[in-house]
Structure formats: structure tokens, C-alpha cells
Here is the input.
Amino acid sequence: SPLGFYAKQGLNVEVVKTAGWAVIRDKTMNKEYDAAHMLAPMPLAISLGLGAQAVPFTVPAIENINGQGITLAIKHKDKRDPKDWKGFKLAVPFDYSMHNYLLRYYLAEHGINPDTDIQIRSVPPPEMVANLRADNIDGFLAPDPVNQRAVYDGVGFIHILSKEIWDRHPCCAFAASQDFITQTPNTYAALLRAIIEATTYASKAENRKEIAAQIAPANYLNQPVTVVEQVLTGTFADGLGSVRKVPDRVDFDAFPWQSFAVWIMTQMQRWGQIKGDVDYATVAAKVYLATDAAKLMKQNGLTPPETTTKTFVVMGKTFDPAKPKEYLDSFKIKRAG
Here is the structure.
């Protein structure tokens, strides 16, 4: 890593830039990669055998929280009410992504059925702005810096930040197979220490500009520094003529709350990705390794949370991880079946 977190743990890590989430999933499952940066729902999908064979996979740490947004094409700047979005084509990075679940949640709360009223398509984030410019899509729920890049290029505006849908939601995660953890426990522990330390460093506002300068270049994000800086500092142009100040537009918190996993699985069920019943608590505990993270955080002089689950609020509605079935049943709009 450019800031030396791996080297400090005695690790020689090759970071491979990979095109597309399905490719990352496949290469990690084939053991070409030892561990990967994945979308937070992917290790759950892999463990449950959704979209590929089932392989026990884990989330030892979350990397960033918040840091997504809904961006629409400039021509839609007067369509701020999602009820006016019927017939829109909206992009997300992947079926098994927080982006997909947050977009669907947001639309459904506004009475829009994401399966019948609009089209959602998977587009790799580096291609989203070009697709918006070419009028192939009306907007997207994307990870940053994609939203900010659309503003910078003058083709889109930021309709809403994901933190305004669910504050402190997970986005990306450090993912590793159960085999990797079992077979190379020391390497796994060192990697996790490096990730937790890097996440803690990134969570401090005073480090954000330095990080922006380090990760903007072509071998990482390939973005103008100002685009990345606007995201990381939270002082940004919204594409509608205003400058907004949202310091935690993106934030970093390594703790892999098991309640994140439970929420994700309720949405996987809601939209027909999981068929039949699921033992939420057991799967969450197997995949989201909160206990490991807490142990390592303590060893590193950090104070981990006392519990592995918590309630949180998504669009004004409290999610209780102890009552996932009731939560799922409470939604009017869901996929039949």
C-alpha cells in the first residue's frame, strides 16, 4: 500500500487492480488471490452459494462506511421526487452490492417497485460516468469517487448521499476464504492488523488530503486529485450549483457488525436472491467475524464495541437484528415468491 501499512506488518502484498466484481469473486474463489477487497454483501453471497458455488467466505473487517450516492443526469435536475423516475434506467455496480440494496430500498420507500417500474443494470463503476454521458442510463447508485466524477465532468448531479439513506452503512470489506484463515493464520492476522490500522488512519479527518493524493493516480483510482479530495474531505460541489459540507460523506470503521450481515440477508430475501429460509444469526456469525476483529483491535490498543450486533436506522425505520423476519414482513414492496 502507498502508506506502508502492509510492510509494517512484515507483509509483501501485491495489490492487483481487477476489472469487475464478478472477476474478483471468481479469482478469489479460484485462489488466484489470497484475499480481496469486496463489496460487503459478496462474502455472504459466496457463502450462501448465490450466483456461484457455495464456498465458506468471511468478512474479517469492513473498510469504508457511507461513501456512496445517487447521481442523476443533469437533464433530470427537476426530477427530485423518485415518483417521477418511472421508466428510468439506473446502474449499480453488482447484484450483490450495498448499492443495489440501498437503491432498491430507497425506491421502494418512495413507492417505486425496482423490479417493474424502472430498470436496474449492473455497470462497472469506472464505466458509469461514460454511460451517463452517452445517455445509456439516467443515473446510478455508485461508490465514490464516481458520483463526484460525474459532477466534475458536468454530466450529473448528486441527488442524495447514501449516508442520508442509512448513516454509517457498510460499503466495502476485506474478504477472505475460510481456507485462507485456517491454512495461513499468521498471514491472515497480519493482514487484518494492517487493514484495521489503515482503516483507523483513514478515519481521521487530518489524514484525508494525504490519502487523496496517494490514491488518485492511475495505478489506483485514476481520478483527478480534486475529485478524490472532495469525497474524502466532504466539502464538495453537488452539481446543482451548491457546495456541501458533509465531513462523514465517507468514513472508515473496520468493525464487521453482524447486524450488517443480517440486514443484507433480509434484502437478499426481499428481492428473491435467497430462496427459502435462512438462519440469519448463524450465517452472520460465520461470515462477519466481529469477534476476531474485536480481539485484534484490543491488541492494537483500540477499543472495540462491547457487542457484535446493534440496531440502526434506515430511512427512519429501525432495524432490530434480533427480528429479521418481522422486518422483512413489514415491507409492502418486495419480489413475490
Remarks:
- The chain has two domains: 5-66+170-211+252-329, 68-168.
